[in-house]
Amino acid sequence: MKTVKILLIASAVLLLTFGSCTNKKVVEGTTRGQIDSVSYAMGLNLGLSLKHSNMEVIDIGVAMAAVQDVLDGKELRFDGRESEGIIRSFMANRREFMAKKNLEEGQKFLAENRKNADVIELSSGLQYKIITQGSGIKPNAEDTVKVNYRGTLIDGSEFDASDDPVTFPLTGVIVGWTEGLQELNVGTKAMLYIPAELAYGERGTSMIAPNAVLVFEVELLEVKQTQPTTEK
Description:
Largest sheet: 7 strands, antiparallel
Helix content: 40-55%
Shape: elongated
Number of domains: 2
Number of helices: 5
Number of strands: 7
Radius of gyration: 23 Å
Distance between the termini: 46 Å
Order of helices and strands: HHHHEEEEEHEE
CATH class of the largest domain: Alpha Beta
Low-confidence stretches: none
Structural class: alpha+beta
Strand content: 15-25%
CATH topology of the largest domain: Chitinase A, domain 3
Mean pLDDT: 86
């Protein structure tokens, strides 16, 4: 499991960094400020990895005690192989729990959302709401679009956003985007409410938990047509 290896590597690097912080003597070729900065950066990266892997439940105090045991050369509770197995088993159980939880919460969110008069729901389950109506053409599934967007989970936490307009073919994105963008005229700003099965489903991603409903604010700026069509 790739995520397990990432966590183990991050933890190993943190061990080395943590060890350098506990030494009063600065390592040759470094400064205290550099060590403090890289130590914080590695801790930050490990924290983000834990959070994105739904492993934020770990006890940092116990983890740091294990770090100290390694640095002090004490007898360890587990060897490397056992540690990897424990992490893998826990992550599998955690993932199963989160998948069920997100499925239930997502279904409830979409059921409540469809009650809003300005929300339109397609037969696939995709929901959208027009914020500002544009007057340009609508794209087809084979077209390329230019958009601004911001993506959040149903709790409002942001997982992605465009700093500048981005361009991509509608055949190269999740189904919810392919379907949703075809409902919008150029110049339109809208909200897309995408069920998990039209997004990343049970597999999720490193940033998105399994069975998560995704919410996007999208502005369709331009359409590059594969083949000119009559306006819908």
